[in-house]
Amino acid sequence: xxSKIPTTVITGFLGAGKTTLVRHLLAHAKGKRIALxxxxxxxxxxxxxxxxxxxxxxxxxxxxxxLANGCICCTVADDFIPTMKAILARPDRxxxxxxxxxxxxxxxxxxxxxxxxxxxxxxxxxxxxxxADAAALSEGRFAANEEAVDAQRRLDEMLDHETPLGELxxxxxxxxxxxxxxxxxxxxxxxxxxxxxxxxxxxxPGTRIVRAANGHVDTLALLGLGMSTEDNLAGRESHHELEHxxxxxxxxxxxxxxLTIPSGPGRDQLLAAIADTIAAHDVLxxxxxxxxPGARARLAIQAVGPRVNAYFDRDWAEGETRETRLVVIGExxxxxxxxxxxxxxxxxxx
Length: 350
Ligand SMILES: Nc1nc2c(ncn2[C@@H]2O[C@H](COP(=O)(O)OP(=O)(O)OP(=O)(O)O)[C@@H](O)[C@H]2O)c(=O)[nH]1
Known about the structure:
This protein is an alpha/beta fold.
């Protein structure tokens, strides 16, 4: 019998740095052939595009599979299992499989899927790695009032009194075999200590925390954890599993949409409009590519909460439509019409 293919599940909240970590991992694969499954929320494949743009020979197009259907945790049977079976049926099987979940995914249903007979015989979870955003955590963006939440929880473990954000964050933390505390470059040492102390309240005892900036984690530390996570599910239950004693969950708490606007405003004007939109509508994540008049290259835009980054990532290809396409994600309800109208107005006025 051939040995099982190890699989690393990379999870973590929207914008924590999962794709950045994967990019670093692929660039330092140390000779391993890695198949990558990317799951994105929203119908514009930004993550895959970011990875494909890395130009490294390890970022081979044929080794990247995109599951753009929202959330891997809800489409396990329809999307994930067939994708895994297709990878396993390849004549050139990978040495390792990496799955990047969407930032809104609960890892639990995905982990359990590794116990499906047709998968279990051939694949094992090497480890679940949860990427945490040190900057967002230090700004208190997941649980606004930790102390009140904790006090409540002590009173009744089962009461549904947390924010959707806080719950999702905790579900991702308890699922972890290793936590990568990323974006340490944005946080001073004292704040980082405080963040680690806070994190320890949410993770299973014994989970290792590795600090990182820009996803720079040694491949040998990341791959080869050998956890067989699918056989060790105790203590990893999601809030939903604990509360409803079963599978399934809903994503009604979050909303996402994509929008397309014609090339119009200049870089600074567009970024200012995006920053205003994020602040006015409490947008959690916004990403995509923009067409800036007179620019040969497209502008990659990455916003995580109030922090907006932008860089020209590659030249527009011949025949490619020069337009701005963005994915917007926030807590439900998201004012889609207003956001779309505001951004389009800026494009038209330009
Ligand atoms: N300063 C800083 N920025 C980072 C770091 N890691 C990632 N980023 C930036 O954070 C933004 C989001 O990073 P991604 O890697 O796309 O995050 P993600 O978790 O894959 O995002 P989703 O897939 O949308 O959930 C990008 O602008 C990254 O360049 C870091 O360690 N430090």
